[in-house]
């Protein structure tokens, strides 16, 4: 299970994201970026955040730490913004918290350099999870003290929005033409050689096990949260199994 903290104060919204995450203070006095089950994208965006983020971490990629963020809707009383009030009231219970990266700047591919090996591993990972939300227009990457951080994976794993057609997704090609790291000559061959053998059913199961039951209950077509987890594992295991003809060709 992911570690859990309770939100004790809503600090400020982050209006850059469509789901309007916010910065909150936890009962451990830590500061976190909160993503809410009551946001327009719903709980599946949070499922994608956990599964993709924890898989990325196990592959050695820099993803800020994730945790279960328990929220009491009473926090909405102190918020003057009606939209924030509504979101907090709709988000009682378990939400997603992400470690706040202090001093971070949004990544600009024209201002920062990325090693081709790291660029290749990130593009490979995005191709595996079908992450269309890492373009040069909206990189969803942060830089802090020379460290690159991967954030915002809620738009990936699109197959879980239509489980009956999910099997077709496993061979869907990934278009990296607009990827934020395309200009850094990402070494996809090396990434595929190094990372593909690591994506075992056991590794995928470890990441899927961290998805809270609350976000998987009552999923149409499944009789339990564990059945939904098994479906995610099967999807990603099938995509990883060769031939990986979904991998993109990237022209720098």
Can you put this structure into words, describing what you see?
The chain has 252 residues and is of the alpha+beta class. It has 2 domains: 78 residues, no CATH class; 136 residues, no CATH class. It has 6 helices and 8 strands. A 5-stranded mixed β-barrel has the order 1-2-3-5-4. A hairpin with a 2-residue loop joins strand 7 and strand 8. Helix 1 packs across helix 5 and helix 3 crosses helix 4. The longest helix has 16 residues. The protein is globular. It starts with a strand and ends in a 12-residue tail after the last helix. The model has no long low-confidence stretch (mean pLDDT 95).
Outline the fold blueprint:
Layout: E1 4-13, E2 22-26, E3 31-35, H1 43-58, E4 66-71, H2 82-89, E5 93-99, E6 105-106, H3 116-129, E7 141-144, E8 147-150, H4 188-195, H5 201-208, H6 225-240
Parallel strand pairs: 1-4
Antiparallel strand pairs: 1-2, 2-3, 3-5, 4-5, 6-7, 7-8
Helix pairs in contact: 1-5, 3-4, 5-6
């Amino acid at each position: 299970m992911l570690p859990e903290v309770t939100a004790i104060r809503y600090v400020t919204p982050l209006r850059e994201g469509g789901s309007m995450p916010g910065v909150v203070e936890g009962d451990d006095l830590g500061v976190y970026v909160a993503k809410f089950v009551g946001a327009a994208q719903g709980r599946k965006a949070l499922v994608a955040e956990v599964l993709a983020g924890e898989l990325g971490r196990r592959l050695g990629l820099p993803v800020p730490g994730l945790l279960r963020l328990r929220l009491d809707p009473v926090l909405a009383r102190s918020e003057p913004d009606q939209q924030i009030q509504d979101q907090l009231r709709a988000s009682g219970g378990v939400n997603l918290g992400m470690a706040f990266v202090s001093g971070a700047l949004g990544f600009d591919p024209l201002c920062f350099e990325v090693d081709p090996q790291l660029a290749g591993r990130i593009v490979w990972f995005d191709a595996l999870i079908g992450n269309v939300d890492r373009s040069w227009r909206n990189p969803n990457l942060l830089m802090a003290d020379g460290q690159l951080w991967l954030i915002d994976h809620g738009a990936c794993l699109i197959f879980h929005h239509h489980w009956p057609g999910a099997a077709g997704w496993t061979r869907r090609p990934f278009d990296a033409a607009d990827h934020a790291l395309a200009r850094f000559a990402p070494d996809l061959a090396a990434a595929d050689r190094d990372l593909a053998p690591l994506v075992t059913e056991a590794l995928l199961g470890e990441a899927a096990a961290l998805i809270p039951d609350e976000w998987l209950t009552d999923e149409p077509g499944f009789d339990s949260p564990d059945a939904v987890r098994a479906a995610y594992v099967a999807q990603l295991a099938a995509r990883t199994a060769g031939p990986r003809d979904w991998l993109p060709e990237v022209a720098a």
